[in-house]
């Protein structure tokens, strides 16, 4: 039996599918790290992946992850860095096979063990669950899921750190999961490295807070940070965050030497409050963290110590993320220019709405914004502004309907305004907008014991 | 910070208006149709001012016409921060929403426009 590590470094490599492609490589080559965690799954990503899998059973995972692994595997294998990622989407096994293929191509055949975590996918079990009385009520509206049963595209329970820990204990160097929580990808390595018990609630909460801080990549190390944003150094070279954890549950937030960005109490606090609900009850499958107990201290340049985190036992429910087909939407834009830019855009909006009405088109919603004036801050925006002097305003009008037909007709009503509406209009180079399918999100809870995580190992 | 022109006398105590952007920084995000705003004091000594003046009622009034549901507030004295939940802020939220800011990313600075009147 080996003794637990003194400190363990978990690096954040991707905050979402589409994050900076350079970040994972920089994290594994820029200095010492023990683990690299990568978060790929937003709430509706699963439905997109489920759609891909229904067309091709070999797909349904985050393909960018394979490209990333091709680039970093030689380094991670050589240096003994382990990777945790929820890039498996709705097909973790196929994702693992693709990584194994890449490993063999790189000459790493026989040198790589990949852990695959499944059991989160409930789509095939849905009717059985409903029949046994699991209503999967919408957490926001209270409606039972049978109301949208025939339109459901994906259904996944959020798994926690436990199966990640199991995969690591059985020797996995890369752990590929489906819908494991973002925080579980960081907590898992810490539980494994330090031997934390699943009911060591304060440790579990600390690892969860660590995971929350780095799950959005550079958003805790100077990215999107409002305080003194002009003075955040060298953003082009921004350093992604690293958790340097100790067995007692305290940890430091750091980044590699020589990188840009900034890690201070302000940047970490901004990330702590991001997407926060009740701070006393940050609920994950692994436990409940109390964010009002977190203590932050600047203990060095780009080094913030996190301590004092208290936790409570996990609940007997797991969150389920269900995606279902909702309808269609489209958004059209035109740019109106000085003089009277806003007035012209407002006139165009009235004219367009009149035409949609005269055509008898039925929409669930029509939403107008004037970008450059009040699109995001609404009536608060123009309180101290000389509206007539605005140099240009983008009219942005969107519609939503259950049927595609009115939405499609709407998309043909934008361009005509250039010649038959208010003057000084431009910005239509992108052409006619396209109706877009809306896949909506249905959050629900399910009894924990109905979900059985599974771990298997694949050798490259 | 010093804006003497804003000073005025109310009763016997003098007050002046301060915009939250001079007292706090903020980050916002979404959970479904709810936007959250974490409001963080720029200095620890500003935190009591935020607790006293940036009430749920004041925030609800500030965002009148922009949100359809109620406002909730949570205190994080350990981080010198308040967390606000604005329900019904995102036109249905997520993929349903037609808003530019469907994920509530810039409700943060919209709150920083708020002016509070503090005693000097």
Describe it.
The complex is a heterodimer of chains A (460) and B (120). Chain A is α+β, with helices and mostly antiparallel strands and 460 residues long. Chain A is built from twelve helices and 19 strands. Chain A has two domains: 8-120 and 158-315, no CATH class; 326-441, Alpha-Beta Plaits (2-Layer Sandwich), CATH 3.30.70. The longest helix of chain A is centred in the C-terminal third of the chain and has 18 residues, at 341-358. In chain A, 50% of the residues are buried. The mean pLDDT of chain A is 96. Residues 1-7 of chain B have low confidence and may be disordered. The longest helix of chain B is centred in the middle third of the chain and has 7 residues, at 47-53. Chain B has helices spanning 47-53, 56-62, 107-112; strands at residues 8-10, 13-19, 24-31, 34-41, 71-76, 81-86, 115-119. In chain B, 17% of the residues lie in helices and 36% in strands. Chain B has one domain (19-119): Alpha-Beta Plaits, CATH 3.30.70. In chain B, the strands form two sheets. Chain B has a four-stranded antiparallel beta sheet. A three-stranded antiparallel beta sheet of chain B has the order 1-2-7, with no helix packed on it. At the A-B interface, helix 9, strand 14, strand 15, strand 16 and strand 18 of A face strand 3, strand 4, strand 5, strand 6 and helix 3 of B.
The overall average pLDDT of chain B, rounded, is 91
For the record, the count of structural domains of chain B works out to 1
Task: Point out poorly predicted stretches of chain B.
Answer: 1-7
User: Main sheet of chain A, how many strands, which sense, barrel?
Assistant: 10 strands, mixed
The tally of domains of chain A stands at: 2
For this structure, the quaternary state is heterodimer
Determine the structural class of chain A based on helices, strands and strand pairing.
alpha+beta
One letter per element, helices H and strands E, the order of chain B comes to EEEEHHEEHE
CATH level 1 class label of chain B? Alpha Beta
